[in-house]
């Protein structure tokens, strides 16, 4: 019974006569006995009792529900104001939840605009050129008649007290400069390994091969791989998750491009000390590269440096929209850097900005490697 907190069993004799109900008590009946219960409004928070008037075991009888007081005008106005916001939040959550159950459809009739054979060739050449480099694939992406291997290169300088770093690019198929910058780095690792001897490096130059071939940010099924690390509907996200299983890194560098950016920006996730980022920005400015400063954009870069708050990543994760950055921060490394170049800049300049940023974060001076 909802309005009863406790009841106790009392014994009686068959000869007992029913006693009148005390003042303020309701009378209930069952097939075996008559009992009294204290109304909820008069119990004052104390346990309510059932007092049988005849021998036997007390039974519970439903009490009539207490009348609900009408809502006050102030409460009604508050509910009216909260209603639209709660409705929008519920609709957004439902849309994100239902998207995981919809089967993505293969995009048909999209014409390829470039070949990716040069990516595999660069990996193979680096593997043959240096005993410190090993190039393998971590899986295959298939979309209709399209097939491509996800290539991966490991750089091991065989030096003591090394740190580990992961470099990723090409999660969006339109990031040409990011992909080329990682491939250029492979050439430097083969020709000048001593400059990077302080690091064990894992490099994945192209995470979205179909998008790169067709110059589309999403994959062949229209999935934004960068936002698929909560549901893992794409083969690319699943392959990366399998590759990163039980791996930990001191630093993760994710290379991107932005068509709306007006200059270079570095995003810091989980990094409180921005000394390395400020040093990078000074080097970029010294070489005449543009630096983003979006003071009117919430969480935008300030003097080229943007901080990604962890609460923002948790919010996306709650809605099933976990980003690759959030996944890497939670599962792989406590320090994740996102390098973003403006797509409006010339291709060669974007590649140069990415290379300078990588070397700056890895502590490599410009004179330590060969110019490319």
What does this structure look like?
Strand 8 (265-269), helix 6 and strand 9 (305-307) form a beta-alpha-beta unit. This protein is globular. Helix 2 (117-129) runs parallel beside helix 3, helix 3 crosses helix 9 and helix 6 (275-286) packs antiparallel against helix 9. An eight-stranded mixed β-sheet has the order 3-4-6-5-7-10-8-9, sandwiched between helices. It folds into two domains: 1-65, no CATH class; 117-362, 3-Layer(aba) Sandwich (Aminopeptidase), CATH 3.40.630.10. It has helices at 73-99, 117-129, 176-191, 209-214, 235-244, 275-286, 310-318, 324-331, 347-362, and strands spanning 26-29, 34-37, 133-143, 146-155, 163-169, 199-204, 251-258, 265-269, 305-307, 336-342. The chain is of the alpha/beta class and 372 residues long. The protein has nine helices and ten strands.
Q: Report the helical percentage.
A: 25-40%
Shape: globular
Average pLDDT, rounded to a whole number, is 79
Structural class: alpha/beta
Q: Which characteristics define this entry?
A:
disordered N terminus; 372 residues; Aminopeptidase; two-stranded antiparallel sheet; 31% helix; alpha/beta; 2 domains; eight-stranded mixed beta sheet
Write a brief caption for the model.
This protein is α/β, with parallel strands linked by helices and 372 residues long.
List the helices and strands and how they pair.
Blueprint: E1 26-29, E2 34-37, H1 73-99, H2 117-129, E3 133-143, E4 146-155, E5 163-169, H3 176-191, E6 199-204, H4 209-214, H5 235-244, E7 251-258, E8 265-269, H6 275-286, E9 305-307, H7 310-318, H8 324-331, E10 336-342, H9 347-362
Parallel strand pairs: 5-6, 5-7, 7-10, 8-9
Antiparallel strand pairs: 1-2, 3-4, 4-6, 8-10
Helix pairs in contact: 2-3, 3-9, 6-9
